[in-house]
């Protein structure tokens, strides 16, 4: 019941404002799943929300079809090596890193809009169109996806900032759609890597998976009736408290 409820709430949050990992990942830890496996399982549980969201934005995504192949390759490479790195650290090492990753994810969630606007104001057409600029952007995207393969929380916010830098302007629907598509690729390749090594708690993950799918669908139907501004504030407060708890557990 705990895992289904966490997945259900996480699915709602991901559909409306993001931040579902702040609910699902700690719930997996409370259920007794070791930290590294809990992180891998959280990526598995988040996958259905990414897929359904990307499908909903399919028309907006196709307007940028020329960018999809290089972006997909960067996501595959970065996501795979990020997931591979996760499997090379033990639970004790990962537990020391988790508070910093959670703190980073909370900051990105809280200030993601300002970060995106900052990048948008400083991006230029000459950088976008220059060959060296395109290569550097792909390298940056691969690094972002490396983070996503290692630790899923906050990936969407970083991707939105990247798209502002890459010159998507105010096309927020396309940015959200391609963000979700890249998240699908990163999560899928990471889950494949985790599955091969036996690093997913399938029983616990499937319960959270079903909850995420249910909550995401319900939120999509009721989105207009839920005040997302208050929801964002609540997530930031909850994420901050959770980060402090993780710091206390890891370093006290």
Characterise the protein shown here:
By secondary structure, the chain is mostly helical. The protein has one domain. It has twelve helices and no strands. Helix 3 (35-56) packs antiparallel against helix 10 (172-196), helix 6 runs parallel beside helix 9 (155-165) and helix 8 (131-150) packs antiparallel against helix 9 (155-165).
Brief write-up:
The chain is an all-alpha fold and about 250 residues long. The protein contains twelve helices and no strands. The protein has one domain (about 1-250).
Question: What is this structure's SSE topology?
Answer:
Blueprint: H1 2-16, H2 21-30, H3 35-56, H4 58-62, H5 65-86, H6 91-122, H7 125-129, H8 131-150, H9 155-165, H10 172-196, H11 202-222, H12 228-251
Helix pairs in contact: 1-2, 1-3, 1-11, 2-3, 3-10, 3-11, 5-8, 5-10, 6-9, 6-12, 8-9, 8-10, 9-10
Helix and strand succession? HHHHHHHHHHHH
- C-alpha Rg (nearest Å): 17 Å
Structural class: mainly alpha
Summed up, the domain count is 1
Low-confidence stretches: none
Strand fraction band?
Answer: under 5%
The span between the termini is 31 Å
Helix content: over 70%
Strand count: 0
Count, helices: 12
Question: What descriptors fit this protein?
Answer:
252 residues; mainly alpha; 12 helices; globular
């Amino acid at each position: 019941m705990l895992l289904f409820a966490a997945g259900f709430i996480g699915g709602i949050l991901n559909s409306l404002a993001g931040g579902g990992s702040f609910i699902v990942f700690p719930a997996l830890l409370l259920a007794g799943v070791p930290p590294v496996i809990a992180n891998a399982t959280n990526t598995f549980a988040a996958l259905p929300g990414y897929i359904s969201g990307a499908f909903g934005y399919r028309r907006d995504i196709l307007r940028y079809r020329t960018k999809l192949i290089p972006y997909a390759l960067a996501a595959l490479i970065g996501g795979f090596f990020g997931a591979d790195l996760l499997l090379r650290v033990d639970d004790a090492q990962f537990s020391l890193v988790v508070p910093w990753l959670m703190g980073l994810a909370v900051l990105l969630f809280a200030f993601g809009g300002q970060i995106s606007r900052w990048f948008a104001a400083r991006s230029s057409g000459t950088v976008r169109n220059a060959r060296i600029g395109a290569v550097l952007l792909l390298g940056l995207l691969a690094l972002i996806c490396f983070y996503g393969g290692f630790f899923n929380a906050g990936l969407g916010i970083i991707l939105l900032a990247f798209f502002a830098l890459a010159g998507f302007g105010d096309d927020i629907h396309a940015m959200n759609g391609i963000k979700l598509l890249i998240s699908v690729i990163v999560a899928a390749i990471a889950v494949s890597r985790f599955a091969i090594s036996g690093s997913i708690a399938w029983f616990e993950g499937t319960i959270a998976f079903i909850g995420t799918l249910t909550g995401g669908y319900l939120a999509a139907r009721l989105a207009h009736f839920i005040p997302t501004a208050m929801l964002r504030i609540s997530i930031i407060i909850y994420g901050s408290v959770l980060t402090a708890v993780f710091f206390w557990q890891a370093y006290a």
